Amino acid sequence: MKCILKNDDQGYRIYQSEVILNNQQEMIDEINSAYAKFIKNVDKEDINTLPFSNHKDKEGKTFISGISNFFAFTAPSPLFYDLYIELRDAIRDYVGDSRRLYMDAWVNYLPYDTESILCWHNHAFTYHGYISLDPKKTITDFEDWQITNQPGYIYIGPGSKKHRVILLEEHKNPRITIGFDVEDKTILPETAPTYDGNDEAGYTMLPLH
Questions:
Q1: Which residues contact 164 (CB under 8 A, 6 or more apart)?
Q2: Peptide bond before 151: cis, by omega within 30 degrees of 0?
Q3: What digits encode the pLDDT tens for the residues 19-67?
Q4: What are phi and psi of 33, to 5 degrees?
Q5: Which of 25, 76, 87, 104 is deepest in the core (most CB within 10 A)?
C-alpha cells in the first residue's frame, strides 16, 4: 500500500491497495459468495434492525446498498484481513498521529439499475472514504474535484464533502466498493452514528487498532 495522490488543498489522499491489485478476482468471488449467503438468510420482516442500508429502486422494490460490519462479513478471509491492514495503515498515514480512531465499513454491491440511488450525500463523521474493489467505469464527483475510479484505489477525505457516483457505461455484474467512516471524537455528536444522514442509528463502529 502506498499513497499515489495527495491533495492538501482539498484535504484528500488516494492510496493503492497491493492486495486488490494482486488478488482482485478472488476477492470479488469471495464477496459474491458472502453476499449470496447473507441475502439467503436475511429476515425480510425485520429488515430495519439489520446492519445494512436498504433503499427502493425505480419500481419501488427494496434492495440492499450497504452491508455494514464489512470485515466481519468477510471473516475469516486472509485476503480481507490483509486489506484491513492496508486500510488501517492508510488511515493512520492520512490522520498523521496516534489519536484514538473509530471506524465502520460496509460493502456497496450495486446492480446497474440501482446506481442512480447514489446521488448527492455526505457523511456525519470526521473522515469518509471508499475502496474500489470492482468500481466499473465510474467517477466519484465531490463537486470541487473528481476521482476516476480504478481497482485498488483507497480514497480518504473529509466526511462533510458531498459526493455522488457518475456512471460512464452500463455494467452487467454488480459494482463492488467498500465504504468506510472514521471518527476521532471522544464524545460523538448526536448525528454521528448515521450512515447517510437518514437518522437511522448505526452500531457498527469499532476501535481502529
A1: 118, 119, 120, 121, 140, 141
A2: no
A3: 999 999 999 999 999 888 877 766 555 444 445 555 555 666 555 556 6
A4: -65, -45
A5: 87
Q: Cell numbers for 152, please give them.
A: 485498488
In this predicted model, what pLDDT tens digit does every residue of 103-116 receive, in sequence order? 988 888 887 776 66
Place of cell 427494496: 62
Superfamily grouping for domain 2-41+63-207: q2cbj1_9rhob like domain (2.60.120.620)
β-pairing, 138-141 vs 164-167, is antiparallel
Looking at residue 69, what is its pLDDT?
A: 77
- State the pTM of this model: 0.86
Domain residue limits, the chain: 2-41+63-207
